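Troubleshooting log. The previous run stalled partway through. Resubmitting the same two chains, unchanged.
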Amino acid sequence: MIRLASAGSNPQEILRPVRLSYVAVTLLVALLLNLVSLPGFLQLLRPDFTALTLIYWVVYHPRRVGFLPAWVLGLAMDVADGSLFGQHALAYAVLMYLAILLHRRIVMFGMRHQVLHVLAILAVAQAVMLLVRLLDGAQLPGPLYFAPSIVGALLWPALFNLIRVPLRPRPDADAV
Amino acid sequence: MEYTAAPFFKRGPSLFIRFAFFCLLSIGVLVADARLGYLHLTRQTLGAVIYPLQRLSALPQDVAGRISGFFVTQAQLERENEQLKRQNLVDAAALQTQQTLVAENRHLRQLLGLRERVPRTAIIAEIVYAPRDPFTRRVAVDKGSQHGVKAGQAVVDHIGVVGQVTRVFPWLSEVTLVTDKEQAVPIQVLRSGLRGVTFGIGYDGTLELRFMPVNADIQNGDMLVTSGIDGTYPPGLTVAVVSNIERNAAYAFARITCIPAAAVNGFGQVLVLSGDQGFPQNVAADKAASVNPPKPRKANE
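Second attempt completed without errors. Output:
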């Protein structure tokens, strides 16, 4: 299937090969973004960048990230967040499963529909965490609990383009 | 899209099997941590591994602080200097009276045959970041077990009680704020001397003074200070100010809401107080407990 390349957000453009080190760096930067303290209200809206980046790699380069790195990242998030040990790990396992299951489908959609898919995956991952915490005896959080998923999904197009910047083919010097 | 060749033969376990394996592993870890209390070491190790990231994440905040500090105006500095000088004068006067009071207190305690209070040491720590877990109210501070911080120690700032250290990593520790759900602080009403316990509400940054009779002598604006009977918080530290009282004769207890005095939502420096109060061991209770271990009870609201 050939689509006219509308520069920017064409999900099927041809990219340079992805190095594992680049995947690792993006995931570490995402983890770092999750840790940065934000003032007051923004803290409630901050999306889970690690989850978002994981979804990107799984959807567009499904053989680059496996379950194990995602799971270990989840444990790292749990330590950093001081949440229950294994809570993020479980959520990321669910997220990986959904993303791998849907990845062939997601790439066929345009950006707007991709956002909806990502929203669903992020929300399910958050719902898993909510369930774990409720089983542990936490009280129901406010309606803003799912706001990070919505913000994360809205950031999907930006993340998509940002991660791809180093992957786009450089203009060929030998081209006639 | 992908340049690496796909495996020619389908190898390895199927997607669902991998998913199920990691789910079960997560649930195992969850149960081991939350119910059985194992995996302390694993958490510590991972904590040490991600420590550089945690420090790095505090960098923007530091840089922002420095930049805003660089662009402060002369007038602002002068005003602040003036204010600090005035505060210093007030504090100096209070300190002088306090020195005589300390001497007098020691003398009186000797006369009455009471034990002297153990002086506390404190470690200055800085709040590094606030974790994004929406279910709890915690902050991470930049001192850990390597600096002598232990779980259970009280944390205060220049106004009042911030919270309690609940988890210690080698170079970081987690402080549960007084506004966290079910975080209890034994208090005393400064005006009337009435004792009670405040509990954090959890979702809105306020405290609740529970189990106070409807006719208890409490007014709006009453200052609540630590009573010191728990052995964690030293007596006399400001905890909260009463902000709202609902007295309904239909209920046994009044509903009292308080606002924390310390800057529990801010980022700044805090003091971690050493926990050793030199309490005598409760030998009788320990013996009874070891002979007949009591069932752990859940706190009922």
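Takeaways: The first helix of chain B runs from residue 15 to 34. The mean pLDDT of chain B is 84.
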